[in-house]
Amino acid sequence: MEINQISSPFVHNSEQVNTPLKTPAQAQESFKAAFQEALNAVNEAQHESQQKTQLLATGNIEDLHEVMIAGQKASITLQATVEVRNKVVEAYQEIMRMQV
Prior knowledge:
Structural class: mainly alpha
Largest sheet: none
Low-confidence stretches: none
Radius of gyration: 25 Å
Number of helices: 4
Mean pLDDT: 85
Number of domains: 1
Oligomer: single chain
């Protein structure tokens, strides 16, 4: 009776598991870019809300729903960003409390 080896891509590529996908510098840049993109989206939502509010005040826009939706969208994105910031600060503080 002949015994054949089980062929699996996981077995052949096991050396790739031990190599990091990104260096710490690359990961830092990736996080920075993602965070910057999120902050830009929050800023755009706030700016859009402010513009629509001004248009409503001057009478150039009649749809109150559109203004309220833009305001709520800006509010929610800002709240989410503040919560992410709080979690990042909390994680940093937890790391700083660790004893080495």
